[in-house]
Amino acid sequence: MRLRRFLSALLLALFSLQTLHITALADEGMWTFNNVPRAEIKKKYGFEVTDEWLNKVRLASVRFNNGGSGSFVSPNGLVLTNYHIVEDIVGEVSTPEKDLAKEGFVAKTRAEEIKAPSLELNQLISIEDVTARVNGAVKADATDAEAFAARSAEISKIEGESLKATGLRSDVVPLYKGGQYNLYRYKKYTDVRLVFVPEFQAAFFGGDPDNFNFPRFNIDMALVRVYENDQPVHPENYFKWSTTGAKEGSLVFVTGHPGLTSRLNTVAHLEELRDTSIPIIIRLLERRETVLKKYMALGEEQTRQSQNELNSVQNSLKVYRGQLKGLKDPALIARKKQEEQALRKAVAAKPEEQKKYGDAWDAIAKAHQTYPSYVKERRIFDLMGGFNSTLFIFARQLVRLAAENEKPNAERLPEYTDARRASLELALYSPAPIHEDFEKLKLTDSLGFMVELLGGDNALVKQVLNGKTPEARAEELISGTKLKDPEFRKELAKGGKAAIEASTDPMIVVAREVDAKAREVRKRYESEVLGVETANYAKIARALFDTQGNKIYPDATFTLRLSYGAVEGYMENGKKVQPFTTLGGLYARSDQFKHQFPYNLPPRWVEKKSALNLNTPFNFVSTNDIIGGNSGSPAINQNAELVGLIFDGNIQSLVGDFMYDGSVNRAISVDSRGMLEVLKKVFGANEIAAELTAS
């Protein structure tokens, strides 16, 4: 999905038993690997999921730290993902003289492979249920805020102990919005090298107009190789490449890391998203889209610097607009109300359950009634909506790193604990290039958004601007900071709290000025919203467990999940949409629009057309339940062979954050046969193709 950073799919949570029966017949669900619906899969598709199969699939899958998924596809450490998952890396290793986004890239030898700065891949090694320990840290008479703090401290302890004992990245993940807690342990890979990317124009053929639509004709793929000790890794588990692909009706599994869903959300929670939170995000993104287009209009180099960010912003805009449209649909809200009322009625019918769970919905509603009073300050200061600059992110991290290091590990903000320190530093000290003019433009716009949202008379807004216009202040901050130098960042971090407090670097000064307010609104949100949600969504989850057992799946949490489905078309505007497109269809669509952007093909593709088998399947759709974060996920058959590569969902999937409709919700993949045909005949990457298809 072109929302590498998150989103898309359909509703889990508040099902009556009748609705659950319907769900079991559909291909809905992003299932954790310790709760796969094996009986349902066998009943519908005749395939028995074994422990051996699940272990192989789990260990062949990887997570990218920038918000996507991938998988090992060779015994020599090749990992397949989407172009749009590594497009930032492509930009970072490109130069004005050699623009890999424009030219594409093939490493003919290992020596030509390019080190990807700040990229981390995670391989899930184990899952452990730690629910009892996390909840056991909460005193019986604790308030929701106290309980949240106690759980957070215990989670930090668990993660720290696990890291020390195993050396593995250790993340405690809340599932069912606090109904369960699982400890996920990951093996980390930080030496990742670029092997192959197509041209951006081929990867994202059709651009924003075709995004989240089907038919599609994209080669949205990339290959990287994982190294350890300067040698390629040799994974025991990887997906063999299918040269025969899938056909209509074929069973397809998707294993990946869906970002975030809101299927368990109460009606009151959804109404707050509809009326307050999402409209603010859309305003922010619309401003960013405008300023990015303005910057790109300045020239080819400015376009190279900002194209990836525009892609992400436009993708996010499409997603949030789709979500908002869905939440404004009376039918969706009516369905949610009906399901919520059914569960509440079932709880109320049993006095003991009513006593334990009955107040959960009202508590969540109250939390979301007060949130709008400070949501703007949180968006600007805590979530950095007013400070859209890589350099400000560095400043925030340095200021907080110094402060958090003074505290016991269990009392730190989660992202600054020992268990997550290495991942934080990988990004903080990245040598990736920073473009000053681009940073100035983005910061100018976001400071303007701060004024627009909070008003020019706001005391902290005045302090940040220091009597200047957003443009003049951005110029002063970006030109004056030394944070562009990773060595300077390292030295400042080594100096600790004293160095940060003594620093006169203007970006550090601003980060210090706003940190108190940012922490204040974060703490208020965690106490008044997250704390209440954690306690009360856990009650709703337990009510569901009491009613339905474990036959429900948790909302997505950017952790490894398994989805099952079939290659299947759908009806749109009264017409059948066929499940496959072909390479010939790619050229026909380019002809249809007279080869004008965004339907133009790179020169290499025009030259190689006659060499291609134009009947080769290129993209296909399946009923798999996915969202953003699943970008780069492998689509595999029951033999654990790779038949496709997830890169998007259709337009009907945009409300998938809240609900799933198996009749029209579709995942879109690049076909394994199309990828091989392009590698060999368009790029001449025969060595890579041979490695992928070797037995």
Fold and architecture overview:
The protein has 695 residues and is an alpha+beta fold. The protein is built from 27 helices and 22 strands. 48% of the residues lie in helices and 15% in strands. The strands form three sheets. Strands 2, 3, 4, 5, 6, 7, 8, 9, 10, 11 and 12 form an eleven-stranded antiparallel beta sheet that branches.
Structural key phrases:
alpha+beta; 11-stranded antiparallel β-sheet; 695 residues; 15% strand; 9-stranded mixed β-sheet
Which word captures the global form? globular
Low-pLDDT segments = 1-25
Percent in strands: 15-25%
Q: Which structural class should the secondary elements be placed in?
A: alpha+beta
Quick structural overview:
By secondary structure, the protein is an alpha+beta fold. Residues 1-25 have low confidence and may be disordered.
Question: SSE layout and pairings?
Answer:
Blueprint: H1 17-25, E1 31-32, H2 38-45, H3 51-60, E2 61-64, E3 68-72, E4 78-81, H4 83-93, H5 100-103, E5 105-106, E6 114-115, E7 121-129, H6 131-136, H7 144-166, E8 169-175, E9 180-189, E10 191-197, H8 200-203, H9 207-210, E11 222-228, E12 231-232, E13 240-241, E14 251-256, H10 267-296, H11 300-327, H12 330-348, H13 351-357, H14 360-370, H15 375-382, H16 390-404, H17 418-428, H18 436-454, H19 459-465, H20 470-480, H21 486-494, H22 496-502, H23 506-548, E15 561-566, E16 570-572, E17 575-577, E18 580-582, H24 583-592, H25 603-607, E19 617-622, E20 634-636, E21 641-649, E22 667-671, H26 672-681, H27 686-693
Parallel strand pairs: 13-21
Antiparallel strand pairs: 1-15, 2-3, 2-7, 3-4, 4-11, 5-10, 6-10, 7-9, 8-9, 10-11, 11-12, 14-15, 14-20, 16-17, 18-19, 19-22, 20-21, 21-22
